[in-house]
Design a protein that fits this description.
This protein is an alpha/beta fold. The chain has a single domain, classed as Ribose 5-phosphate Isomerase B, Chain: A (3-Layer(aba) Sandwich). The protein is built from eight helices and five strands; from the N terminus they run αβαβαβαβαβααα. A five-stranded parallel β-sheet has the order 2-1-3-5-4, sandwiched between helices. Strand 4, helix 5 and strand 5 form a beta-alpha-beta unit.
């Protein structure tokens, strides 16, 4: 069990976190914002700000992802109905390492080994209590920074920066 001082230090290290959701994750986002603020986190809400059934997840997830990639926020929480669309959209932004998370091990291991900086959740797939547990595990984790993990991330960055021609895509 962590001491209050250790928890406060971790919150200070993380800084601001961002959250975004479409209509499929709106209720979960609202509950998470409240839980995170109560726990003392600084939360930047990228919307949706009202439940609009016709909204589109990229309109909220992409600005969140850009803020993570640009260093405006340390980590992001992206929510849609299944989490799949949010994950796809977030990963289109270079510098974002987003994953759809449904279990506690992946929530922290994704940060520790892969430097995951956006957690994607399914508002219609997992419950509120699990979403809070997964988010807290994600926020509490630290990248291990061992040489093998850095080497792997460098290869991922090279993929992000590479321009593919048609032959690369076909073969």
């Amino acid at each position: 069990m962590k001491t209050d001082q250790e928890i406060a230090q971790r919150k200070a290290e993380i800084g601001r976190i961002g959250i975004a959701a479409d209509h499929g994750g709106f209720e979960m986002k609202q509950a998470l914002v409240s839980s995170l603020q109560t726990a003392g986190y600084k939360v930047v809400d990228f919307g949706a700000y009202a439940l609009v059934m016709e909204d589109d997840y990229p309109d909220f997830i992409v600005p969140l992802a850009k803020a993570v990639a640009g260093g405006e926020i340390a980590r992001g929480i992206a929510i849609c109905g299944t989490g799949v669309g949010a994950c796809i959209a977030a990963n289109k932004v270079p510098g974002v390492r987003a994953a759809l998370i449904t279990d506690s091990f992946s929530a922290h291991q994704g940060v520790e080994d892969d430097d995951m900086n956006v957690i994607c959740l399914g508002g219609r797939v997992i419950g509120q209590a699990l979403s809070r547990d997964l988010t807290m595990s994600f926020l509490d984790a630290r990248f291990k920074e061992s040489e093998r993990f850095k080497r792997r991330l460098k290869k991922v960055e090279e993929l992000e920066n590479k321009k593919y021609d048609l032959l690369d895509i076909i073969y």
